[in-house]
Design a protein that fits this description.
It contains eleven helices and five strands. The chain is α/β, with parallel strands linked by helices. The protein folds into two domains: about 1-120, Response regulator (Rossmann fold, 3-Layer(aba) Sandwich); about 130-205, Arc Repressor Mutant, subunit A. Helix 2 (about 35-45) packs parallel to helix 3. The protein is globular, with a radius of gyration of 17 Å. One of its GO terms (biological process) is regulation of DNA-templated transcription. This is DNA-binding response regulator. Pfam families: GerE, Response_reg. InterPro entries: CheY-like_superfamily, NreC/VraR/RcsB-like_REC, Sig_transdc_resp-reg_C-effctor, Sig_transdc_resp-reg_receiver, Tscrpt_reg_LuxR_C, WalR-like.
Length: about 220
């Protein structure tokens, strides 16, 4: 994985935590967003641990640039600042998780493994709260015709993705095979032009397919 933080002491601490795990290793360090993008393009790390406040290029902009690439890494945003607008922007850009720097070592390594496996590292209830707060202050996006065109089954699968259910859990709730759910998920991502389940969750909240705090369809 790649570490991106402008403080050498922070990077040293993270590297010590990560490199002591048998299944994790740090391949490079970046001291700002520009270097993070350049190193990621060259080294192709599986996961980038990205700080937000960095010189030359901030972590949010760097995340957007990284995730515009083909074969882009998973991005886990890590910061000392619990800002709802930053969380929303990071998730909207496609970041797979958001953690504060006061997490314990075991929480950090578990989060890295989670995003590397393609899952989201942010509780669905927290995701909903952040998105709801952001949309209240900044306004709801214009209706997307792609949301209207979804079938009832596709909307239900998308709703359950936003609520944090795994493919196996969705399959159990909807009485479908796991392979069938995977097909629905892949079809949804393609139809909505989304890169992963994180962006699918944001889309679902933005378009009222799931209402924050309520496990029901809007």
């Amino acid at each position: 994985m790649l570490l991106a933080d402008d403080q050498a002491l922070v990077r040293d601490g993270f590297r010590a935590i990560i490199d002591r795990e048998a299944d994790l290793s740090v391949v490079a360090e970046a001291c700002d967003g520009v270097e993070a993008v350049e190193l990621s393009r060259r080294l192709r790390p599986e996961v980038v641990l990205m700080d937000i406040r960095m010189p030359r290029l901030d972590g949010l902009t760097a995340t957007r640039r990284l995730l515009e690439q083909s074969q882009s890494p998973k991005v886990l945003v890590l910061t000392t600042f619990d800002r709802n607008d930053w969380v929303y922007e990071a998730l909207h850009a496609g970041a797979s998780g958001f953690l504060l720097k006061d997490v314990r070592a075991s929480q950090l390594t578990d989060a890295i493994r989670t995003v590397a496996a393609g899952e989201t590292m942010l509780a669905p209830s927290i995701t909903g709260r952040f998105i709801a707060d952001y949309l209240t202050r900044h306004g709801i996006p214009d209706p997307d015709p792609k949301a209207i065109a979804l079938s009832q089954r596709e909307r239900e699968v998308l709703r359950r993705i936003a609520l944090g259910e795994s493919n196996a859990e969705i399959a159990g709730q909807l009485y479908l095979g796991v392979s069938t759910v995977k097909t629905y998920v892949n079809r949804l991502l393609t139809k909505l032009d989304l890169r992963d389940r994180t962006q699918a969750a944001v889309f679902a909240y933005e378009h009222g397919i799931v209402i924050p705090g309520h496990a029901r369809e809007g």
